[in-house]
Each structure stands twice: as structure tokens, then as C-alpha cells.
Amino acid sequence: MTAIRLLLVDDDPLVRAGLSLMMGGAEDIEIVGEAADGAEVEELVDRTRPDVVLMDIRMPSVDGLTATERLRDRKDAPQVVVLTTFHADEQVLRALRAGAAGFVLKDTPPAEIVDAVRRVAVGDPVLSPTVTRQLMEHAVGSGADTRRRHARVRIDTLNDREREVAVAVGRGLSNAEIATTLFMSVPTVKTHVSRILAKLDLNNRVQIALLAYDAGLLEE
């Protein structure tokens, strides 16, 4: 089995040491590098080719949000999991919009952080529908009307079936659950999800969920 290549990014050396110790105990995870600031991330990614980056948000020079945006704009970008001390935070939401696959709190039990790395490595977002709603409600007063108009325009590029799948993704359903709900096969669901990502120029299912929420589809 090929180990998951992990890059740790945090400006606190004690946090990095704790994460390194925690992740080093997992046989299927290999720590390929560490960075103390977002400014170091792109060069390290080029050199170490990680599958997943565990990224602190608040750093002194280049923060994790900016580093995430830069990474997710790249071809063959690694998955990013944001590290934060806050459940509902504007910067967390911005990181998710930029393409982060989810976030974990710094006080999350070690086993759950390891599980989060494993999940995003295979394409599963680390974000529950409840947390998505909390984040969206946190930012509801910040340009919500503009976001809704823009989201509606983008959603209108989907056909009816793709729209149904997008809503189901936004409600946190797995591919198997979507298949059952919409009476289609799992491979067909995967095809629709891939087409939605391509049509809307999105990175992952989290972004589909956020766009569906912005467009008001989860209220219908």
C-alpha cells in the first residue's frame, strides 16, 4: 500500500512537533516536509509532492488562506485540510471556497485528525452538512445577495439531473445515498459529480455544497 504523503504547515514549532508525532504513528502516512509559514508552501510542494497539506490558517507572513488559494490554482494540486481554533470562522469559509477539502480544529482528538487526512486523500471532504450551514450562517450578512445572484447564474449552466445531484451533494449525501434517492447507479452519480465539477470549475464536493447553499437550492 502506498503511503499518503503529508506536508505540515504551522508557525508554532510545538504544534508541528505534536502533529509530526501524531501522524508519524500511522503506518499509511508519510510526513514529507514541514513549513513554518505559507510563503514556504509552494516550493515545498514542488519538492516533496504531497498528497495532502495540513494547513494552519493564521501565520505571520503568508497566511493559510492565501497559501491554499495559490495551491488550489495549480494543476494537480494536493488536497488541503485547514487547521483552525474556530468552528465558524470567515477565514475557514474563504479557505473552503478556495478549494480546501475541509477543516479540523486544533483540539480535535488525534485519531480524528489522522482519519481526516486519510479521507481527503481518497477524495472525501471533511465537513459535515451541519458545519457547512454554521459557516454559511456566520457569513450570511457579508455579500450574501451578490453571492446568491452569482451562484444562480452558475447553477443555471447545469441540466436538471446535474442540479438534483448538486442539491444532494449539498445536503451531505454520499454517492450511494444519492444513487438510492435519485434512482441511478453509483457510477452514474460519480459521472454527474465529475461533470458538475468541470462545468462549474470547482475542486471538490465541499465547493459544490457551498455553491448550492449560496444559490438557495438547499432552501427549496
UniProtKB/TrEMBL annotation:
The keyword Signal does not apply. The keyword Flavoprotein does not apply. The modification 4-aspartylphosphate is found at D56. Signal peptide: none annotated. Residues 5-121 form the Response regulatory domain. Keywords: DNA-binding, Phosphoprotein, Transcription, Transcription regulation. This is Response regulator transcription factor.
